[in-house]
Amino acid sequence: MLHKTAQERYTKLKKVFARLKSNFNRDDLDDFIQTAIHYANGLARLHF
Q1: CA distances from 20 to 3, 24, 47 (A)
Q2: How far apart are CA 42 and CA 9, in angstroms?
Q3: What span, in angstroms and rounded, lies between the C-alpha atoms of 37 and 45?
Q4: pTM of the entire structure?
Q5: How confident is the model at residue 3 (pLDDT cuts 50, 70, 90)?
């Protein structure tokens, strides 16, 4: 699923982080990292 807004990406980051805390696995870690990268890139575009 594509998340178009920073708020949607942040919400997904929180959800994935909660999953990682309760049950650490590679798939969720990969999902968290990819979402964090997209979130950071989206924020960078807002400021420039």
Answers
A1: 20, 4, 30
A2: 9
A3: 12
A4: 0.72
A5: low
Helix (H, G, I), strand (E, B) or coil at 16: helix
Q: What is the C-alpha to C-alpha distance for residues 6 and 45, in angstroms, rounded to an integer?
A: 11
Is there a contact between 6 and 43 (Cβ–Cβ < 8 Å)?
yes
Structural domain spans, the chain: 6-47
Q: pLDDT of 10-33, one tens digit each?
A: 898 999 999 999 999 999 999 999
In the chain, the amino acid numbered 23 is N
Token pair in block for residue 12: 């997904």
d(CA 45, CA 24): 31
In angstroms, what CA-CA distances link 38 with 18, 24, 42?
19, 21, 6
